[in-house]
Write a structure and sequence with these properties.
This protein is mainly alpha-helical and about 110 residues long. The protein has one domain (about 1-105). About 65% of the residues lie in helices and about 0% in strands. It has helices spanning about 1-15, 25-40, 40-55, 55-85. α2 (about 25-40) runs antiparallel to α4 (about 55-85) and α3 (about 40-55) packs antiparallel against α4. The chain is elongated and about 60 Å long. The model has no long low-confidence stretch (mean pLDDT about 80).
Length: about 110
């Protein structure tokens, strides 16, 4: 029990002592990570839609699904990474790893 209290105090002190840079901070990184973990399965539908709009239904059925599965894995991995490492300002100044879009629903036409 004592270890958990010490761990919680260490995490809290890291969060309090970290320097905010620009508009990104540790809590935003945590939020991005959780959001990416929760929305990663929707990437399949979004990529199929994008490929269908640009290349047609046959490409969407083949390449779109593969691209969606790949982006699902990427978004999930980045989400887990950002959730686990949220107190650490990496990449520099808590910048997002996925920038296009940073959050899934920013760039979609749902």
């Amino acid at each position: 029990m004592k270890r958990y209290i010490v761990l919680a105090l260490v995490i809290l002190s890291v969060l309090v002592m970290t320097k905010d840079a620009y508009c990104d901070n540790a809590l935003q990184k945590l939020g991005r990570g959780i959001a990416n973990c929760l929305t990663c399965p929707i990437e399949i539908l979004e990529q199929v839609k994008r490929v269908n709009n640009s290349d047609g239904p046959i490409a969407a059925f083949t390449y779109g699904i593969l691209k969606g599965v790949g982006m699902t894995v990427v978004r999930a991995a980045v989400g887990v990474y950002e959730t686990v490492t949220f107190p650490v300002p990496l990449p520099k100044d808590y910048k997002p790893i996925l920038t296009d879009p940073e959050f899934f629903f920013e760039d979609t036409n749902w």
